[in-house]
Amino acid sequence: MPILRYDNPYEPATGLERRAERGYPIGPLSARPVHREIYLVGYRNESDVSLQKPPLFEEHREAGADFTDFGGWEMPVTFDSIRTEHAAVRDSVGIFDVSHMSEVSVDGPDATALMNRLTTNDVGTLERGDAQYSCILDDDGIILDDTVVYRYPERDGYLFVPNAGHGEEMTDRWSTYAADHDLSATVTNETDETGLVAVQGPDAIERVESVASEPIADLGRFSSTRTEIADVDCLVARTGYTGEDGVEIFFPAEDSDAVWAAFDGVQPCGLGARDTLRLEAGLLLSGQDFDPDEEPRTPFEAGLGFVVDLSKPAFVGQEALGDLEDEGFDEELVGIRIDGRGIARHGYPILADGERIGHVTSGTMSPTFGVAIALGYVDSAYAEEGTTIDVEVRNRTVDATVINQRFLESLEQETVTE
Amino acid sequence: MEFAIPDGLSYAESHEWIDRRDGVVRVGITDFAQDELGDIVFVELPAEGETLERDDAFGLVESIKAVSDVYAPISGTVVEVNEALRDRPELVNESPFDDGWLIELESSDEPDHLLDADEYAERI
């Protein structure tokens, strides 16, 4: 048993190295060599000065949270247990501090043109208050990040939300592109000034409505509105990352305490539950299920073709995707149900008839179904649902089946059928 | 946070405990260890009859967020494994010193190198 005082679940090696460089203890207390694989590990009682802290850091610490380094932020990984937090969101409601996510605003006469050039979905279809999921690509069609683009409800202009640690990079990308192409737009990285919480679960809307100054029950999926919560001006959007109904709430970072306090009594949830919830819903994690360096993938391979509009005005990566659409692609992301004993994890090989046909990018034990589930890329010949495959789990092969990656539905279906 | 550290057991620095009773040595992981791992979802244990040397990795405990080897605090032969963990690995979380035990060894090894409860408490 090692002491689990490591960080950065999604970059195990580099996370450990970086932590060692900063002079933090990285080893087990015992000196013996240990086999360990850390996927998402929290620590307490020590704070990492090189990491950015969310405005609610002290609040979370007092609540007994364990923390982890995520995208350069020191974020709560668990408050109680992953199982408890996960169940709260599936059964009733939970709240997440997700202020580590980046926020970038884009205004000006060419804001729409700029957004359309640098994202894959058609921003031109957004009415005020609408939001859309989208990808940000390089010239080769490789996903740099995924994002949600919000058109502000009260004014022209956009807010988009890159993943943790990507705010500055995307602000630069947008500004440089605008300058190089004579587009008139103001691009501002608002990450540090913006607080963001997600209230998710079947009871989320009712709970938010009980503290909001405006009704929100009529808010459509991927729509947003302005409302006050605890006298704080908030942008409330019916979006999320859990597979449940719910909202994400943007507000000035300095008002974080007031907004968080308005949801007193709601189960606080950390990144651990956020990961199991998103995986059950079949949602991808940037930097893990795709990554320009470690896992370079196009939206087609990643199963995100539904946010690519090849017929819209020109965008970065369009040509490469057009070619790919004609030529087809060799590998694609699939959902995997583990049938044998074991849990597939990031990087584990996927085999068929003893041959390597792909690898796992995310995997866990599903708290809802008690079944091990995973996402991974496989040779397209094996991507059809129902295909039997093997996953290599610590030098053992374990039986598995390709199933629809929307595990919440596909595993529920199986339960009903049985 | 306060962790249970029952008196009368011997502890390894790597957070296993042993309980000697009637010539059989029961082995498990500590309350501290189960809390660090979090929700345990999978436990892999050796077969009965297997011989373990002290410090051998004899199995592993996997939670939603991590997996870790577990080590034999002393040498011995596995005479019993906790079959209940196959279907209910969460017993290690709920009851690390009782229902969540891992294996039983037949051993003539003396546990002099291990820690008593007070010594272990100082290390966590």
- Give the DSSP E fraction of chain B (strand runs of 2 or more residues): 35-45%
Q: What is the annotated CATH architecture of the domain at 330-417 in chain A?
A: Beta Barrel
- N/C terminus separation of chain A: 38 Å
Greatest interface (CB-CB under 8 A), with counts per chain:
A-B, 34 and 30 residues
Q: Label the overall shape of chain A.
A: globular
* Largest pleated sheet of chain A: 6 strands, mixed
Strand arrangement, largest sheet of chain A?
Answer: 11-12-13-10-4-14
- Contiguous low-pLDDT stretches of chain B (5 residues minimum) are none
The CATH homologous superfamily of the domain at 330-417 in chain A is named Aminomethyltransferase beta-barrel domains
Total DSSP helices of chain B:
4
Total E-strand runs of chain A: 20
Largest sheet of chain B: 6 strands, antiparallel
Order of helices and strands of chain B: EEEHEEEEEHHEH
Detail the poorly predicted runs of chain A: 1-35
State the CATH superfamily name of chain B.
RNA polymerase II/Efflux pump adaptor protein, barrel-sandwich hybrid domain
- Overall CATH architecture of chain B: Beta Barrel
Secondary-structure class of chain A:
alpha+beta
Helix-strand sequence of chain A: HEHEEHEEHEEEHEEHEEEHEHHEEEEEEH
**Rg result of chain A:** 21 Å
> What is the distance, rounded to the nearest whole angstrom, between the alpha carbons of the first and last residues of chain B?
11 Å
Q: Give the structural class of chain B.
A: alpha+beta
Keywords (chain B): Lipoyl
Cofactor (chain B): (R)-lipoate
Subunit structure (chain B): The glycine cleavage system is composed of four proteins: P, T, L and H.
Family (chain B): Belongs to the GcvH family.
